[in-house]
Specification:
Belongs to the MurCDEF family. MurF subfamily. The chain has 16 helices and 21 strands. By secondary structure, the chain is of the alpha/beta class.
Length: 421
């Protein structure tokens, strides 16, 4: 089937779906395959539940003309997204980085949606499947598209950029994330900077914070740069972040000074796209973080900084540094393993453990095999091999009106600790 024919069918549909649990009326279902599943087997269910078409790559599952055969469903999804992107008269902003991508994307969307009809990546659907799905969720009414791009190896950002074809781009930061795939911090910088290379080759606009010398160095000599960050000043981050902007004080619901740059990005893009100062301030002040990202939760007399969506050595150190500055004598950290660090995992977990032991904490709790394997004899530190082990012993701590920091990689799912506190 040609991409032109597939596109004609796509235009007849209201949406695109890859999961039969989320089928909606008149959607186009893509029967993706994975290591443990064959989406072709679910094509019939998708049609029965309201899908207009099912895109399959196994002739055995073709029942009638609603089942559209392609050579490879994933490649068809990606090619359709690129074809659609080329037909959209919509400016696309792409962003990547080691930390803060999703929060930054949400802030940018909050600001720009004050003036424009925006379509942004949902959640963190930022990979080789999520980016195409984001693009295919846009239509001719979308005035600005915001596409988050994640990567754990070289050439992935390049690949995603060649699908999204961004007009504007930015990198939140370079940090020690996905070292198993990137190999080193130098590998991270090279991989993330593939977005810069794409934008430069196509003479598109790059946004870069004037405080970030490393990023400015990576951009190099280039004519289409928007430098930002000089109009704002960090005022406070205990526990909520506030900053000055245009002779006003913005009081956010975000915790941590590490979110300051994320807010600056949203302000810069708001200014560039001529959103009023009032609307920029209003959007940031009314943005409330969710999904376990920099949330502040008050529960049973405790205050909890819940930052359990993900973690890597850079974001962990930033969170601990910020937590250390908070004025409270009853501070407890509950930290989970950091994943995808490869052979550097023992060293990086040891570094976090050592750093934590130097802080004035009531207690430090480490969860996961990586931390357990490097456990120290610090009297204030407790190590548990799994969440189940922590669960079995949590009642022994007898916490009373504590300030908690909870952080770990997604696979640790440390938001479950809320049920224990």
């Amino acid at each position: 089937m040609t991409i032109e024919t597939l596109y004609e069918h796509f235009l007849k549909c209201k949406s695109v779906c890859t999961d039969t649990r989320n089928i909606s009326e008149n959607c186009m279902f893509f029967a993706l395959q994975g290591g443990n599943f064959n989406g072709n087997k679910f094509a019939e269910d998708a049609i029965k539940n309201g899908a207009s078409f099912a895109i399959i790559d196994d002739i055995e599952y073709k029942i009638n003309d609603q089942y559209l055969m392609v050579d490879d469903v994933l490649i068809a999804l990606q090619n359709l997204a690129l074809f659609h992107r080329k037909h959209l008269n919509t400016p696309i902003i792409s962003l990547t980085g080691s930390n803060g991508k999703t929060t930054t994307k949400e802030l940018v969307n909050a600001v720009l949606s004050k003036k424009y009809k925006t379509t942004a990546t949902k959640g963190n659907l930022n990979n080789h499947i999520g980016v195409p799905l984001t693009l295919l969720s846009m239509n001719n009414t979308t005035e600005i598209g915001i596409v988050e791009m994640g990567a754990n190896h070289q050439k992935e950002i390049e690949f995603l950029s060649n699908i999204a074809l961004p007009d504007y781009g930015l990198i939140t930061n370079f940090g020690k994330a996905h070292l198993e795939g990137f190999g080193s911090i130098e590998g991270v910088i090279k991989g993330k900077s593939e977005l810069y290379q794409h934008l430069k080759v196509n003479s598109k606009i790059i946004f870069v914070n004037h405080h970030d010398e490393l990023q400015i160095k990576q951009v190099g000599a280039y004519d289409h740069i928007e430098v930002f960050g000089s109009k704002t000043q960090l005022l406070e981050s205990q526990p909520y972040l506030s900053l000055s902007y245009e002779q006003q004080t913005i009081k956010s619901h975000l915790t941590g000074s590490y979110n300051y740059n994320n807010v600056c990005v949203a302000i810069a893009l708001g200014e560039y796209f001529k959103v009023s100062t009032k609307d920029i301030v209003d959007a940031i002040e009314n943005y409330i973080p969710s999904n376990n990202r920099s949330q502040i939760v008050n529960q049973n007399g405790h205050q909890i900084i819940l930052d359990a969506y993900n973690a890597n050595p850079s974001s962990m150190l930033a969170a601990l540094s910020n937590f250390n500055q908070l004025k409270n004598e009853n501070k407890v950290v509950i930290l989970g393993d950091m994943f995808e660090l490869g052979e550097t995992a023992p060293e990086e977990h040891q570094h976090i453990s050592d750093y934590t032991s130097d802080l004035k904490l009531k207690n430090a709790i480490f969860v996961g095999e990586n931390f357990y394997n490097i456990k120290s004899k610090n009297s204030n530190s407790n190590y548990f091999k799994s969440f189940e082990d922590l669960n079995a012993h949590f009642g022994n701590f007898n916490f009373n009106q504590q300030l908690f920091l909870i952080k770990g990689s997604r696979g640790m799912a440390l938001e479950r600790v809320l049920n224990l506190i």
